[in-house]
Amino acid sequence: MSAAKTKTRVSTPEAQSADEKGEFDVVFFAPWGSGEGRLGRRAAEESDPEGPMGFVIDDAGRAAVLDQVNSRVVVFADGKQIKEIGLPASTYQDLERDKDGNLVLMDRLAQRSVDLLDPRGRQIARIDLEGEGVPEGGGTTALFLREDGVWVEVEHTRLVRVADARGRPDPKRPQVNGRFSADGAWLLSAVKEGRQAAVVLVRPADSPGAVPRLLSRVDFSLPVLHLLALESDTAGRVLLAAHLARFEERAPFGVLEERVEAVLLDPGGAELDRVRLEAPRGALDQFRTLRLSPDGILYYLYYDDSGVSLRRMAI
Amino acid sequence: MSRLLFVMLVFSAATAMADPDPMTREEIVDLAKTGVSYSYWWGHDQWREDGAEHGSCSGSCPDCTHTGSYGADCSGYVGKVWQVPGPIALTTYSHPYSTREFRYSSTHWDQVSRGDSLKADAMVYRNSSNTGGHVILYESGDPWGSCWVYEAKGCSYGIVHNLRSVSSSYVTIRRHRLESAPAVGTVQGVVYKDVGVGAADMSIRLPGAQVSVSSGANAAARENDAFWSFSLAPGTYTVTANAGGFQGNTRSCPVSAGAETWCSIGLVEDCIPDCSGRQCGPDPVCGQSCGDCPAGHACDSAGRCICQPACGQRECGPDPVCGESCGSCPPGQACSDEGRCVCVPDCSGRQCGPDPVCGADCGSCPPGAACTPDGRCEGNACIPDCSGRECGPDPVCGQSCGMCSAEAACDIEGRCRSISPSQGKLYGYVMKIEKTAGGFSVTRGRPLKDARIRVEEFETDADEYGYYEILVAPGEHVVEASHTGCEKGRATCLVAPGGSAECDVPVYGQEPEIHGGCSTSGPASRGPLMLLVVLLLARRRRAI
């Protein structure tokens, strides 16, 4: 992948370790807006402010960003928009893209469906999200496209297969606990534990009912606001990221420190690396802003008042 | 008119300032649920409890287009479910507060720490230019720290219930006059498999384990991480966890107001005893009994029942319980049935006299022969002739040719004949009574040569053992015995017609003899000897 030339250092004052190794490439930068090369935000009064909900990286390193505010998916390569795919709705919150460029999109609140679109944005299929294993669309937390079909995650704990490999609704809707690792061997799950730590648990994928084993307990440098990502690569490494924040202890409870911290674990659970990333400045609602590619590259969708950038970092 | 307006304003202000009516958190959430699926309607706050007439919204607010009579924006929605400033019907338009008031005022609510957010609290954001914001109603958290919320999300979504992340820009606010006092704390933890090191290794979680609290609350440990949590009034609670295949466990957990107390519980796996190859004792895995041993057996360390020999007073031979040896006897001794070592006589090469090992009798010599010290019979032995005889002494050596039964008598030809009613049989032994150094010795049934019996006019010889039989008329008779070298003795015996009576008769010797032969006893010894004879013969007379 050919990235933009810009390199930026992590600017959080405590992130000495990230300063040392935290240089990242900016895959693209998109100013706010609705035109070409731009990404939309919705900051309407008395409603939920939104930014791009998520993104996906294909094998060629191209980034497809869910620009739902503008009812489209924007594909970036070489730092610029190369493609725009119109969407039938502005309420999608997660996406996947197959090798042929077909899109799988999850609308968990309005249509409460998983929509399959061809590379030109034409709807191929619509699958009801709610049903066996998914009592409430609002409880879904991720969308996964695998060779065996389309899976949605419920409450960060279990997967439900809603469509088979050909995109047809799966009447059986099988479930597994956790989310599949990149190599398919494991089912991973993560749980916030206490105020400032989280645990990563694993099960063999071929024994989804097995008692989970603790892979690692990760202590973070600040209290955990929420976990941001649980990813893995084909080498079996696991990435756990969290949005961290420390508040004033008394009203008005202002933010004293804030960052994103990503911890890379080896297959045995030992910590390999830890990077501190700048937290976005604002309240935009986003859904899935950090991913680890199969070859172990961290991608982070960051925004500020000027726009959105996708940052890439080898860890 | 202006005065009326003034009164209305004052009344309105007073109403707005008064605390809202009390509500429980559950009542607030119940109201929030009624609004789900209604349309987003900027600047509004009304919907129906029956869920009808949702309305619709299009465009981008505030320049959006709404159709229908019901819907709400985020601040109208929260203000209505909170019922602030006071009770009002869901269907009645009010919309008293925007996110600006929720964020920066505290008329009917206060800010609380994000970490202390509880059900029915709200979380409000206001942008930096103070031109817009959003407010949501918090319900609960999830394993990632995301929040289940109710919110009038926007024109495209309407009012929704969903799990989402909430940025640090949001501040938690809590309505006044919540009936469920916030003075509660949280006790939480995980249920894990105790692998022997307690909480030092909680790596194996037990999702689905049943967790109960002494307050009566109970729940199943969460999927994946086996996390559990209870909101409780301050105090100390007993928390119990159970899971199939594991032993239950209990912990005492303190709960403080507004605090989170971690109280994870480890469960030890139920032990599966391994008694393979064991009959008894504890199994090596769980320590449970593999069985008891039968009486007389003890359990060894390998779990086998081992017989415990019971030799007691035995010194040899097998013990009666296990059959194991209680010991062996020295040479020359043999083990008796009672397990005692006894002397084994050695009569090899001996015909008579005591054996040289134990002193036991090796036999006696026939009449006319004497026993030498090395146990051989020497001298002219008489050869008895019992041909044609079945009883009585043989006519050559006087040795016994046999004895008749008590109902028969031996005739003079040595044949046993039945006793006729006109006769009776007297029989018995000639007993030689001798005075010895230690008292008296009585010889009965042992070799006694040449004794003779006389009953009135009838006489007969006793055999070599001193035995005799004689037919007499029924009635009482005096039986007299004589023996060479001995003083005669007498006994008076009574015999019934056709019957028989045992009647031992004494002879008196002075010195001990081994085989026959008597020395004349002196008169001085007669008194005690007579007394002994009387005692011995008393039985005979009574037996007649």
List the helices and strands and how they pair.
The complex is a heterodimer of chains A (315) and B (544).
Chain A: E1 7-8, H1 16-21, E2 24-31, E3 54-57, E4 63-67, E5 72-77, E6 80-86, E7 94-97, E8 103-107, E9 113-117, E10 123-128, E11 140-146, E12 149-154, E13 158-163, E14 175-177, E15 179-180, E16 186-193, E17 197-204, E18 213-219, E19 224-232, E20 238-247, E21 255-265, E22 271-277, E23 290-292, E24 297-303, E25 307-314
Antiparallel strand pairs in A: 1-2, 2-25, 3-4, 4-5, 5-6, 7-8, 8-9, 9-10, 11-12, 12-13, 13-14, 15-16, 16-17, 17-18, 19-20, 20-21, 21-22, 23-24, 24-25
Chain B: H1 2-17, H2 25-35, E1 45-46, E2 56-58, E3 65-67, E4 71-72, H3 74-82, H4 99-104, E5 109-112, E6 122-126, E7 133-141, E8 147-154, E9 158-164, E10 171-175, E11 185-193, E12 210-213, E13 218-220, E14 227-232, E15 235-242, E16 246-247, E17 249-255, E18 260-262, E19 265-269, E20 297-299, E21 305-307, E22 333-335, E23 341-343, E24 370-371, E25 377-378, E26 408-410, E27 416-418, E28 424-436, E29 439-443, E30 452-455, E31 458-461, E32 467-472, E33 475-482, E34 489-495, E35 500-502, E36 505-509, H5 526-543
Parallel strand pairs in B: 11-18, 11-19, 28-35, 28-36
Antiparallel strand pairs in B: 1-4, 2-3, 5-10, 6-7, 6-10, 7-8, 8-9, 11-14, 12-13, 12-15, 15-17, 16-19, 20-21, 22-23, 24-25, 26-27, 28-29, 28-32, 30-31, 30-33, 33-34
